[in-house]
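Listing S7. Sequence submitted for prediction.
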Amino acid sequence: MGIVPLAKALELAQEYDLDLVEVAATARPPVCKLMDYGKFKYESAMKAREARKNQAHTVIKEMKLRPKIDPHDYDTKKGHVVRFLKQGDKVKITIMFRGREQSRPELGYRLLQRLAEDVQDLGFVESNPKQDGRNMIMVLGPHKKKTEAMAEARQAQEARKADAKANPGRSQNLAETDSVEDEAEAPAEAPAEA
């Protein structure tokens, strides 16, 4: 409508049974719209909620290791690191040195390098290994952003739900098969002595 005096704008709002809402107060002259204020508040609240829903919080997960870690324990810890990186979280890996281990920091350095190589398809070294007192610290960052990982997880969950709806008997049959196998594996009760 162009630049209109305030009194005329208020008259127009009253005539159309709408509210005069100031959209941009800092502009010269201030920008106003004729609209239903309740509807405007609701829509802006919905936009803010949607923005919060898609917003990802940066989380740093921590994994602690020892320089003389057993191979099976290493695989378990590596599995946790892989899971964290798949979820889009950063991972802080800490190698804790005790006693004489402190005189051999190269053991911790090699362990961190090995872990970084094992997960290089999911993440990258964000901060190189550095000694911090009794500990050596390295941070791994994911290749995927948290929002991408969340969207993929949401799609996978929806696909599982759709599959369960399409094949409801299949999940029930699997549960029955598991219970029959459990009964077969259970040891027979020993006969009671008199």
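Caption to Listing S7: primary sequence and predicted structure tokens for the chain studied. The helical segments are 6-15, 37-54, 71-86, 105-118, 146-166, 168-185. The chain has a mean pLDDT of 83.
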